[in-house]
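Same chain as my last thread, 117 residues:
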Amino acid sequence: MKLRNAAGAAVAALALVLSLPGTSVAAEGRFHYKYVDTSGREHQVTLHDPRSGVCIDLYGVGSDDVPPGYGPHNETDSRVTVYRGADCTGAEWRLKPHGKPTRDDLEVRSVLFDVAD
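reply #2:
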């Protein structure tokens, strides 16, 4: 009887674990960049806990039809590759986790955060 109860409890625990949602992969922290809109106003955008392992076209600058963003600052716990072109194309630069702000002449349209090991 005890063996049957233990087996039942094990099956119930396994079912509970399998029903829990998986954790999403994200860099923890913030990533900032600036851009100038069509009326000439400068904006700063912050990505909070951005997704890792996928190319992110940045808001306001993620198209080659508008001026690129600039001055990226990586305050996440992950390395990030910033790209001059949309869809993670063109010239690229690597930024360290929790790094210092870059110069405003570093242009960016898309980013790709490393997936943690």
